[in-house]
Amino acid sequence: MQIPLDYYRILGLPVAASHEQLQQAYRDRLLQLPRREYSQAAIAARKQLIEQAYAVLSDPEQRSVYDTNYFAHRYEQQLVPNDTPPHSEFPVEDIFAPHTPIIDVADHLFAGALLILQELGEYELVLTLGNSYLNTTNHEPNNISFRADIVLTVALAYLELGREQWQQGQYESAANSLQNGEQLLSREGILLGIRNDISADLNKLRPYRILTLLKEPEGTLERRYLGLTLLQDLLDARGGIDGITDDGSGLSLDDFLRFIQQIRSYLTVSEQQSLFEAESKRPSAVANYLAVYALIARGFTQRMPVLISQAKQLLQHLAQVKPQDVYLEQAISTLLLGQTVEANQALELSQEYEPLEFIREHSQGSPDLLPGLCLYAERWLQTEVFPQFRDLKNQQASLKEYFADEHVQAYLEALPNQIVANQQKAPAMTATSARVNHTSQQRVQPTRKQHTTDVAGDVTGVTTSAIKPPTNNGALVPTTERAAYVGENSKQTTSALERVRISPRKRRRRKLSTKRKTALALVALAGLLASVFLFALLGQAFNWLRRTLYPAPPLLPGEQLSVELNRPLIAIPTPGSQFSPVVEPLDTATAEQVVQSWLSAKSSAFSPNYAIESLQNILVDPTLAQWQQRVRNDRASNRYRQFQHSVKIDSVQVNPKNSDIAVVQAIVSEIAQVYENGQLNQRASYADQNLRVRYDLVRRNGAWQIRQMQVLN
Length: 713
Prior knowledge:
- With 713 residues, the chain is α+β, with helices and mostly antiparallel strands.
- Helix content is 52%, strand content 11%.
- It contains 26 helices and eight strands.
- The chain has helices at residues 7-11, 19-31, 40-58, 60-75, 110-119, 123-135, 144-167, 171-188, 192-214, 221-238, 253-264, 269-279, 285-301, 305-321, 327-336, 340-349, 353-361, 370-385, 399-404, 406-413, 420-425, 429-443, 496-501, 514-549, 588-605, 623-636; strands at residues 2-3, 103-104, 481-486, 489-495, 639-654, 661-676, 679-700, 703-711.
- A hairpin with a 6-residue loop joins strand 5 (639-654) and strand 6.
- The longest helix is centred in the last third of the chain and has 36 residues, at 514-549.
- Mean pLDDT is 78; it is low at 77-94, 418-513 and 560-579.
């Protein structure tokens, strides 16, 4: 059968590779072992293809013939006769482009060829070939292990492709890839460990998917419905908003509360009402409080005071079950129900000092706190409540329009069990709120707090710090905070969600008379002035004593160097900063810096983070392509290395005809510890002492980089 591969790609080499590079690549490829789940037959097939590629390319005559056919196929249109027999039992002619190099492999080597494509990162090609093989009805191999190897390679391709798409912020595509891999393994009933890995990635990906889907425009009903379904599944897995069951997302309780706060701005008021009312029945104090916000917001904007009455009942239940200072919210809800006496009583119980000061300040000249409470209620709705709902961000809060609505008036008049005083004050609400609304428009313009978001990643991820791949990354939106206004400014108080979860310390009311406040302020000012005068006097005395006992040294003649202890003479690079190419003229010191930069980039590229991009700063092709391929092979084999290096420059020769070309010979010692699947492989680890290495350097854009390297001994 035909496979879109060539011998150079099998060995991870460029076409212009030297014989020494060919030998090194061959040894490296043999040292790289596939995952332990593969059968010995698949491993042997892979090795046979590697040896076949090396045998052809290491023989000059065979390589010359192969190169001729290689370039002819790659750059010329190949015409296949109509009578050419098929090379395999399933069609592959539409899988790859006409100019793609191909090789013919025997059927029993197909698993090895597919494994090599997987190691090269050709995941989509693996899926196309592997699924075509598995789905062919007339192809049923007798060897069960052969099919298991194909299934394993396809499942790993789904897993790695999903992780790549996750890192690129393509969360739904990543979920589709992972789900396809999970379904394949579930259908085959094998490889439980890999199936668990895929399932774990899907769980960590779920918060990223929810954010992405809920951010979709309201017209995309199917995608938003999927987002709401995933959110409900996540809540069920956790046991509620403040549940502690492990849902596999990696989010702690605090992280999940921030996540809930983040998605609120993407949900409509009706969606939040349905969600949080259902969650409050688990029971959940946090969901109870968020349901209050949704009920008040929807009841006010849609002129449905019955919802505000439900919010009031939830607040009363919350205060009884888990005592919290929610009296300010109770005062606002009773105000919106026209129960002004009860609203004043709730204000008397509140310990929120700054909101109360604002309310009292704007109620001066009134027998009660009604004017200030109306003004605060408008501002609270405008700046704290409405911004938390997708469809209310541009909504204006006007108590005048609310109480003037016929449906609101009819409902308030029909409320039972109103006390006499309340009945007397309720009809005056429209006139009072109109006066307060007029005052608020003239005196203070409400300001909306800015809320920040993250996500992938995107996602970001979901993070996913803990979800990484991914990503880490993503920051989450802070918890809702009440704005308490003093004069023309707004200040933040205790978080709404935190107030539900943690009982605040009771704060003493500071009800001081104006005269007593003035007297205390004068005493404090006098004490402050006295302290400043005393410290100034002590400072003068200290300076006089210092000059007497320790006279200043005489000034040095001439101009002095400007040296500051807190600022180094040369810039010190910070840890993890990007490598800067060496641009100085090439000498022994500069050459050593170039080689050290290469070894540092090599250590980063082969580390568990696989920082392959660091190679581009010091290497150029063809060496760059060779080492990039080696890093990809290690990553595909779940292998990383830890290096220790020492360098001593032996000679530096700059080309006399071209000063941008130079040859450096150095004595390099390298100790490498090789880890496979997280375990140290003693056999693959090595310690090479006093290697003489030749580096061919080229200067590009003023920076020295390595074009070729060769071990001389």
